[in-house]
Design goal:
The complex is a heterodimer of chains A (177) and B (333). Chain A is an all-alpha fold. In chain A, 77% of the residues lie in helices and 0% in strands. With 333 residues, chain B is mainly alpha-helical. Chain B contains 13 helices and 2 strands. Classes of the chains: A mainly alpha (177), B mainly alpha (333). Chains A and B meet through helix 3 and helix 4 of A and helix 5 and helix 6 of B.
Chain lengths: 177, 333
């Protein structure tokens, strides 16, 4: 019992959990796009759910409870259900037979390269001396920050969503009167 | 929890029998029960029926129809049962016994956790519909995913006034606020109505049980399922019922508190602690009975009516409710 307590207080468990969740996230994310066993879109969507759940596990380890809960609620609970909903309504037999095209592969690799270079750069610029961020799930603090310091980005994101909504309404309307 | 589920099935059968002027299960008994004093009475109440049902499900042949998608077919019952069981973890079912708090996980985002987990439950149904690889389950699955997403939004919006009034996401804090100010249902009645109707829709109970409407969809998403796998779907439905009753009690009816007999603050003695757990259970059972009663009293909605109600009535109502509550709080402060 004492050994277990030592392990927990020493943060070993957290470290192990971090590696478990990180590995799960990466593994599932790869399986979303490149599953060697099945090219079924529903399988991909389900792996996306697993990716999101393990990512929220990572948030939990950072004590960002709010983020973790919202991650599951919004992405796993709503967005991917909609994905599956659409997948089930469409006939995707064709999708399963489709070969990977060269152009798609190249474009994907280039964008992955760009994202990785951004990550490497931002990782290199972090100073490890900085104080540990206090993300402790206080929703109050998060809301306050969103509406004071980060109001502009917040509003821009809202406008982006509005634009998407207007676009959908325009597309789904058969004829403009 | 499991026991509660089993006996809520019995309660359902007994209440439905009572509403329809029948007797309900009154025969099942282990051997020699009639020689034990009171045994006959227990048998007539149907106390042993859930045991027999459970055994039957366990020993039935586990049949996998040809043409199903195997992996999802096995996964779906598990995926629907796990979230249903996880939801109760954050619900405080009593104040404390000794130094031990009567809540499994005292999270400071308690209510968001519940919504997150509940929203995962839809995968079980969708996957079941998809795995069965036939028409009716597919329709059941699609209907349920549309229905659950629509009503989840109204449900989430309906609790925001509660959170605005209390100013905290922790369910324990919500209860202690109610113990000093009175039950939340007085402050946010519209929230309660929307929450209750939405939880009927979320648990796929009549009048919103379109995913399994037997007159048009055979059995809906679980048409192809049998034996224990079917029982798991059943279990998930009833445990969702248990947890949404528990949520209603916690959010709107003061949780484990009662405004008299000194039950309104955290317990100091062992007896009080246990009494508060019973108070919570009693309130919860009341809502379970309401769930069952509604099922046997009201006919089913039509699908377009259901969607219309969710999107065009409840969502605007919930948004206006948030606005009114916010303005009211702002004027008071």
């Amino acid at each position: 019992m004492e050994a277990i307590n030592n392990l927990v207080s020493g943060g070993v468990v957290e470290d192990v959990l971090f590696y478990v969740f990180a590995a799960l996230t990466l593994l599932c994310a790869v399986l979303v796009v490149a599953n060697p066993f099945s090219r079924n879109p529903v399988t991909s969507a389900m792996f996306l759910v697993l990716t999101i759940i393990s990512m929220s596990g990572l948030f939990l380890l950072l004590h960002a409870f709010f983020l973790a809960a919202v991650q599951i609620l919004v992405y796993a609970g709503a967005v991917i259900v909609l994905f599956i909903f659409v997948i089930m309504l469409l006939d995707l037999k064709e999708e399963q037979r489709r070969k990977i095209k060269f152009f798609g592969l190249a474009a994907g690799l280039v964008s992955v390269g760009i994202v990785v270079s951004i990550f490497v750069k931002s990782l290199a610029s972090i100073k490890p001396t900085a104080a540990e961020p206090t993300l402790e799930g206080e929703t109050y603090a998060l809301g306050k920050l969103l509406f004071t310091q980060y109001t502009l980005p917040f509003e821009i994101v809202s406008v982006l969503l509005l634009v998407a909504m207007v676009g959908v309404i325009l597309l789904s309307k058969k004829k403009l009167e | 929890m499991q026991g509660l589920v089993a006996y809520s099935v019995l309660a359902e059968r007994k209440i439905s029998a009572w509403i329809q002027d029948r007797v309900g299960p009154n025969r099942t008994a282990p051997p020699f029960m009639k020689f034990i004093p009171g045994g006959q009475f227990l048998t007539r109440l149907g106390i042993f029926q859930p045991l027999a049902d459970g055994l039957k499900f366990m020993f039935k042949e586990d049949f996998t129809p040809a043409g199903v998608k195997k992996i999802y077919f096995f996964l779906a019952p598990a995926v629907s049962v796990i979230p249903a069981m996880l939801t109760v973890a954050v619900i405080p079912f009593g104040s404390n016994i000794g130094a031990q708090k009567m809540v499994i996980a005292d999270l400071n985002v308690g209510i968001l956790y519940t919504f997150g987990i509940v929203s995962m439950g839809v995968y079980g149904i969708v996957l079941a519909g998809y795995a069965a690889n036939s028409k009716y389950p597919m329709f059941g699955g699609i209907r349920s995913s549309a229905q659950m997403i629509s009503y989840e939004i109204s449900m989430g919006m309906s609790v925001i006034p509660v959170l605005l009034i209390v100013g905290n996401l922790n369910l324990g804090q919500i209860i202690s606020w109610q113990s000093t100010h009175g039950w939340m249902v007085v402050y946010a009645p519209i929230s309660f109505i929307i929450f209750m109707v939405a939880s009927f829709a979320e648990t796929n109970r009549t009048p919103f049980d379109l995913p399994e409407a037997e007159t048009e969809l055979v059995g809906g998403y679980h048409t192809e399922y049998g034996s224990m796998k079917f029982a798991l779907f059943f279990l998930a439905e009833y445990s969702n019922m248990v947890s949404s009753s528990a949520m209603m009690v916690t959010l709107f009816f003061g949780g484990w508190t009662l405004p008299f007999w000194g039950l309104d603050h955290a317990a100091t003695s062992l007896g009080m602690g246990i009494a508060q757990i019973f108070v919570f259970l009693a309130k919860m059972l009341f809502f379970m009975v309401v769930f069952i009663w509604v099922r046997w009293m009201f006919p089913r909605f039509r699908y377009d009516q259901l969607m219309d109600l969710g999107w065009r009535r409840f969502l605007p109502l919930a948004l206006v409710n948030i606005l009114i509550t916010a303005v009211w709080l702002w004027l008071r402060s």
